[in-house]
Input
Amino acid sequence: MTEEPEQTTPDEQPAEPDAAADEGTADSAQGTEAEAPEAPAAEEAPAEEAPAEEAAEEAAPAAAAAEPAEPEEKLHPKEARKRARSQHTGETRPQRSPEERVTERQERRSRLAARRRSYRSKQRQKRAGSPRDTAAPFEAPAHGPGAPRVRQGIVVSAKPDKTITVRIDIARRHRTYKKIVRSSSTLHAHDERNEAHEGDTVRVIETRPLSRTKRWRLVEILERAR
Output
């Protein structure tokens, strides 16, 4: 006997497509579930890169600050003035006549002189008010037209008649090194009565030329030699 194939009714045929559809839906759901975890990973990638970029931006100023600054170039005053003049973009001054230049120079000099006088007067007032200047200031011997100079020294020779040789000792402080520098000079003075002897401390005054080398005259003997 031959078996006849089973005949399906129209009601039973749609069942297979539904099963296939269910399988396709299940597969798509599984595929969606498989793909779903990957999406956040793609979205999280830029979030991880952002902190790295911020760290790089913060490190850049720190590295720049860590680098030693280049020393400023020290220019000679003449070179600095030359550069300043080369960068000048203003208008040039009109040409002036020689008389105008002389007048401008005189005005500038008078202005600077007035400034110096003001500064010196203030310095004098300041020194006068300081406690160290309470004592009487030292008065230097007057010197000028008609005022003869006065010197004090030691007689080193009295052999010539009416003439003595006086040594003047000078001690002053060096302007730069502040060290006491001692020096001496000799002069010939007229001694009318031959009163001074070697070793005496005398005072002489400037006078008219009395001989080829004598321009001084004995005033008094301050201390006799022992």
Remarks:
- The CA atoms of residues 1 and 7 lie 18 Å apart.
